[in-house]
Amino acid sequence: MSVAASNKQKYNVRGSFRFQPTVFGSKEHCCVPLCSSSGRYNSRLSFHRFPKETSLRLCWLQKIRREGFTVTPHTKVCSRHFLENEVITTEKGRRILAAGSVPSLFEWNKYSRKTRAGVWERRCRPSNPEPDSADPIEDNEPPVMVPMVVDHDYGASRTVCVDREQYHSMLREIEQLKEQLRSCSLQKPFGLKRFSTSPEDIRFYTRFPSYEHLKAFWNLIEAATAKMVRVTRAKKTDVMSTTTETPFTRPTKLLPIDELFLFLSYLSTGCTQRELGHRFNIHRATVSRIIVTWANFLYCLLGSICVWMSPAAVSSSLPQDFDGRYSDTQVILDCTELRCQTPSSQNGPL
Q: What does pTM read for this prediction?
């Protein structure tokens, strides 16, 4: 015999160790997932059909956790999943289930059914043992009992022991945080409404003499802002959108009058777009789109207004010195001459 044949005969133990079927074995098996019980190798188990009652059958299907499972007359559940008092042995030795029995022991609950005491039947935890009288008495204050609710732990005590000094320090910290939050909420955001009562700030940020002058200018252009041509987020700068604005379709969170205030502040102070974004709490790209939008809007709106007087009005208001030779004068441009010192000779010493 060769070496390979001897090794094959040595390690081929499949035929030697095999489950032996019982004498009165059956072909029944359990349909519960993770359960490999079969009547062929275990005669001590009994297998039970699903009940005919619809509600009880649905309860069985819910307990064994099999969705979309079709129950047939050959579908059975072994007695391993029932309690001992639910499996009854008749006088003839036949094992049946008690009325209304439902399987409750499975692999996922480790074939155990722990009973939990009711909420009112539980006892509170024992109190802390009293300190030994032999120990020296410390001068520290006793801990204060603070009520505390623990979620989903009804058996726990309703009080916990904490240090009194730590408890009061936490209360002071909470009050400080509340005061900071209150001050932050009361602080007005950076906008026109914040400086409406300060003429100096209005002149600094907008170059208008006062808030009333700025409101008068806004009342003139407010109706036209509803159909403003806005620059969109598209990559091409020539892509714009024209929509009737409402509080729900406004492209930015700023009011239109605050957008005008941002544009005037940009012209008056020369702030960078990043700085304006921090002040108005918006993105720098949004600041850029607002500036370009309002520059185009005011150019088109104010550029269509004629600021020149008519020829008849100019002729009627001309001074007498302009009669005759300068009678057709329409505009007088006031120029200022500034003299600057220059070297007399370009080849001279520096």
A: 0.39
